[in-house]
Amino acid sequence: ENLYPTRRQGTTMSIEKQMTETSRITANYSYTRAVFRSGSFSGNEVPLVARDTGALSYLWTMNPKLTFAADARYIGKKRFDNDQSNTFQRIPAYTMVDIKIMGKIDTWRWQASVNNVFNKQAFDYGIRSTSSPNIYNAYPLPERIFSMSLGKDF
User: Fold this and answer.
1) What confidence tens digit (pLDDT) does each residue in 24-55 have?
2) Are 76 and 52 in contact (CB under 8 A)?
3) Residue 76 · residue 41 · CB < 8 Å
4) Which one-letter DSSP state was computed for residue 2?
5) Would you give the distance in Å from CA 153 to the centre of its chain?
6) Helix residue ranges, H only, 28-148
7) pLDDT in tens, 82-107
């Protein structure tokens, strides 16, 4: 079943600054206003669209064969799926931080990363129950993840 027509308006701003010859910082922010244009929910916010989002990234090329990266992402609060009436609580805002180090040795490439460094518990998707008040299902995001990869160029 399709939803009533929607309108999404907003703005995105980004800035990138070369801090030194080997390091760079990037920041961006987006503001999105998503509403139903018509129907019984006209003027209400569209579920699952965060009004505010942003990111801050740092990249440091320590030498031609070794790079460090850190990223922080912010997702603002948003309406639960199935809350076109905008009468239910919101999915909470959250911030996640990831870091990784990447390198090359001859024809080998490697990477080690930690996603969700601070082990933040959050969820990005949830659906409101239509049959039971104040009940919802939420699908959590992964907690801290360590990963490593190794590859070879042939």
Assistant:
1) 999 999 999 999 999 999 999 999 999 999 99
2) yes
3) no
4) P
5) 31
6) none
7) 999 999 999 999 999 999 999 999 99
